[in-house]
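Question thread 4412

I'm putting together a teaching handout and wanted feedback from people who do this every day. The idea is simple: show students a protein as raw sequence, then show them the structure tokens that encode its fold, then repeat with a second protein so they can compare. Below is the first pair exactly as I plan to print it.
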Amino acid sequence: MFQHCVFVCMLVPSFAWRLRSFPGEMNLTPMEIPDQPQQVEDMYRSWWTAFGTEADQFSWNTDNHDKNYQNFHDNLAYIVKSNSRRPYKLGMGPFTHLSNEEFSRGGAFCHGKFSADERPDFKGRSTFLLADANRSALDAEEGPWEIDWVANGKVSAVKNQGSCASCWAFAIAGVLESRIALASGELSDLSTAEILDCAEPVVKQRGVGMLLHFAFDHIIKTGVAHRNADYTGSCEVGQLGNVLANYRAIEPESEASLKTAVAKGPVSSAIQADQPDMQFYVSGVITGAFCQVDLNHAVVVVGYGEDGLYEYWKIKNSWGTKWGEEGYARLCRNCNRNDWSGQCGLTLQASYPMITSQVYRSPLVFAAPADAPQTLAG
């Protein structure tokens, strides 16, 4: 039997909750705090049935049901209170059994790996800079009003990184897969395991800073990556060794620059994502000042658009399909957050890979002759 605690009743004492379904999953978005312990127990059991497998992948204490149950109750109160005053919705997901401290120090994050204060070194890089005076004009003139690369079939399936602090590898693989698909018409499934095994030692050696950029630098030199099923544990240049020629670092603190880049294809970036509103996010456009620029998580920006009152960025996460909107989230765009750093710091370390011209063939050529020119395309 679970350990009970005193429950605070809402003004309306009846227990009510709304069932909202995405394809293939169940998600309970509570509207009120239940007034009976048994009702919360029932909700906890329903949550465990729906999300227990994902919870096991992300945390180490899923067997401690007394602690998880207490966290669940506390989180339920936070979710209900937040949903009464947020334009987006929070609800039950893979992390509802964790306190925010447990969530933040868990393996879903790369704490200390990114630095919001460090800016890209554009020397020697093929840069993508826009002058301040041209931001508004370019934002209005370049690119479609909205774009969704998921709907366009250029984004691979959402993955689940589990408790391994590997968000950066999933972001690198995701943006490479999309950019290769745009170049070749073939959507591949790159090996995050190879990126972790082969690029992580270099990333660790270079220390805190621009983690995604460090990984791109390494891949340019050594190549990446076998398809997921083909990775054998070797870090030698494999089938995709000649795909990445360079990368473009997008001008920090410029949502106009980011929009122009995303109009041409998905972009990798870093955000701060360890707050409760990210932990329990279910749907809608994330707004507000709850997240700052303590960058600790990598994502892929896969589109942008408008939803009612808010313009938004669509991001692909690596927390499985039972988090958020089937594994995706929408962050407020052009909301003047964090001194132009964007919602949760999205604009500070955005970049995308530049695919070699040899990929622009059909079918996709995985290995060019040794004397093939490494010209840039895209």
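The second pair follows. I'd like the answer to focus on this one:
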Amino acid sequence: MLFVFDLDGTLLNSKKEISESNKKAVQKLYLAGHKIVIATARPPRSIDSKIKKIGVSTDNIYYNGALVRCFDGVTFSHFIEKNIFKEVFYYIKENDKSAVISIEDNDTWFSCFNFDFKNFYSVKDAPEIITEAELLQKNPNKILINSYSNLNYLNEKFNNICNIIETDSKTLIQIMNKNASKEKSINEISKKYKISSNDIYCFGDDFNDIEMFKFYKNTVAMGNAISELKTIAKFVTETNDNDGIAKFLVEKGFIA
């Protein structure tokens, strides 16, 4: 079987750590021969050290599917084409002067806006500030938008060419290549291992897990998950602060 774990709000507790109970549970899955996939919106630099602490080989999905790095060295990525990025950038800038735009490109965070990033992100390092002209020469893995209030208009204009997700209690809009998503990346990984979709279990908590939950049958929402995810989940477990993953795996007999 293949087990897919979101990180923030799912495998990580509210202190942004993996509990000893959850770590041991994932290790037991791995030792039993199951495949482990980490699926997150985050970039590699911010979570690879936490993934290593699990102590097993994992295939990792970053940027909601815009970048995948498998433990056997296989890597694939989806970038936003430069012309599409420019169109999105100017549309946002012209329609909401308060919006703050930054991008992720090859595991580096860039912006042409000087803003207090700690008001929006729980990270230590600021984005690299470059000129607007330099920014628009990038082919980003992901566009990040804060303080933007016109999501519906953004969807109407770009949903046919981009994957647009609202996360973090609706304070952050993330835009990826149309072909970049957790569910599509999981599908590619499962093909590599020849694992049926019926043998895939997905765990999540936020809006960027909704399409993954719609795509796969065996879905587990955390007790702290948004109501929209709990409604469509096959199972609901305990919260991320109460070892929800470990308890579910024991309850369903995947581990002892």
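Top answer:
Good format. For the second protein you could add a caption like this: The chain is about 30% helix and 25% strand. The chain has a mean pLDDT of 95.
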